[in-house]
Amino acid sequence: MSALGQTVGKAFQPIKAKIAPVYGKYRAQFDQRWNAMQTREQRMLQILAVFLGIFLFWYLLWLPLDARLERAEMRFNSQQSAYQRVADGAARVESARANQQNQRSAISANQLSGFVNTLTSELDMEVARIQPQQDSWVLTFNEVEFDALITLTARLIERGVIIEAMDAAETSEAGIVRVRRLQIRAP
């Protein structure tokens, strides 16, 4: 026996000493009752014990694992759909960037503010703050739909507006983001 086994054995000796008389008493009563039963009754109890074991396995182990698996699949599907929305948005922005040269003329610096105001009202986006910063504009949105934000950036890029920085964070509501900073400037 290993040193660990001896240590564990010594730790349980006081417990074994207290349990052994009680266990022996109940074991003797069980054996006496078991032997007093007919063979047919013993088989029925054995079958009942097997069914009880199966039920306990199903109820205590299988059901909780199945429920956890279902919740994990739901979270995975939710994350996958969120990823797909972001990937679609990125593709729209990239296509807008590629089509920029073929589309409309670029916006000048003095037209940028008016164009942004028109575009945000068209997309039903509420701008929390517009702040000029050197030759750029910094926009802040409290809560905005992710798809509307992607449409806004795609249209800005189509008109030649340069997006210098964007800082967006998710909210507790699905499909809604908070834009802390969208820094844009005219070319």
Automatic annotation (TrEMBL):
Keyword vocabulary terms for this entry: Cell inner membrane, Cell membrane, Membrane, Protein transport, Transmembrane, Transmembrane helix, Transport
InterPro entries: T2SS_GspM (IPR007690), T2SS_M_periplasmic_sf (IPR023229)
Membrane topology: Single-pass membrane protein
SUPFAM superfamilies: General secretion pathway protein M, EpsM
Superkingdom: Bacteria
Chief localisation class: membrane
Localization in the cell: Cell inner membrane
GO CC annotation, single: plasma membrane
Signal peptide: none
Residue intervals passing through the bilayer: 44-65
Example of a GO biological process term: protein secretion by the type II secretion system
Family per record: Belongs to the GSP M family.
Protein name (record): Type II secretion system protein M
